[in-house]
Amino acid sequence: MRIDIISIFPQYLEPLNLSLIGKAQSSGRVDIAVHDLRAQTTDRHNTVDDSPYGGGPGMVMLAQPWLDALENVVEQSPKISTRPRLVVPTPSGRVFTQAIAGELAQEEHLIFACGRYEGIDERFFQQAVQGGQGVNANVNANVTVDVDRISIGDFVLAGGEVAALVIIEALTRVIPGVLGNDESVTDDSFAPGAMQYLVEGPIYTKPATWQGHDVPEVLVSGDHAAIARWRRDQSLLRTIAVRPDLIQGSSAEQFDDHDLQVLASAGWTFSQGRWVH
Ligand code: 6GU
């Protein structure tokens, strides 16, 4: 997968060279390039923003440098057959989930537009979706992308860079081959499938007794079925405690009979198409 990131603070994206994503780059599973939006400006002050039409606080990013940057990125990136997806981190996007991470992980080419200030002039997106001849005389690429506005939660950041890091880390670890075989992503919290509406429960490592606290007996029993069942029970109980909204958004079909017993023992029963608790 190719990932291009456009930002006025390229250094914000340096952590992408570390750890899991750094390794995914070295192994060729992802190819990441960061581009400085200011490189597109032609005036003496490298202007990227101006005051909003209609008034109001803050500044709005100019459409032109963004279109020029997008054209350059599409022009420079290795030939890719599919239409790139332009991911725009913004609090006014759809809320990011593990399912969306899986969806993005299937794309061949993602371009992240990390805005700052109040955001980017809307006409940049209109133009990016529509395509047509670019105004940049040197490049004149015919750029069309799918625009995907994504929020990482109900709070406001100072810019899209940190959100792009979050989204890229989540999608990279679900690209096949990025994690080892023994680090299955299907058991993760929110993983599509059996864990979709659940968070993981507690985990333990050595020593078996630490500061007077014992590891739960079942985990040292060697009984794999009992361990799997215990973990699932813990997951159900923790989800009820910290994320009842996840259970509320699920239906009884997500759960087996034993799950439903555990939920019932915690006061949650599914009746006439909804959860009662
Ligand atoms: Cl994706 N960007 C910004 N700037 N703020 C956010 C966000 C994204 N998600 C939540 N707040």
TrEMBL record:
Catalytic activity: guanosine(37) in tRNA + S-adenosyl-L-methionine = N(1)-methylguanosine(37) in tRNA + S-adenosyl-L-homocysteine + H(+)
Location of the protein in the cell: Cytoplasm
Transmembrane parts of this sequence: none
GO cellular component: cytosol
Cross-referenced Pfam families: tRNA_m1G_MT (PF01746)
EC number: 2.1.1.228
Keywords: Cytoplasm, Methyltransferase, S-adenosyl-L-methionine, Transferase, tRNA processing
EC supergroup of this enzyme: transferase
Predominant place of localization: cytoplasm
Keyword 4Fe-4S: no
The keyword Isomerase is annotated on this UniProt entry: no
Molecular functions (GO terms): tRNA (guanine(37)-N1)-methyltransferase activity
Domain spans labelled tRNA methyltransferase TRMD/TRM10-type: 1-248
Swiss-Prot/TrEMBL GO biological process terms: tRNA N1-guanine methylation
Assembly mode: Homodimer.
Family, similarity comment: Belongs to the RNA methyltransferase TrmD family.
Protein role: Specifically methylates guanosine-37 in various tRNAs.
Protein name as annotated: tRNA (guanine-N(1)-)-methyltransferase
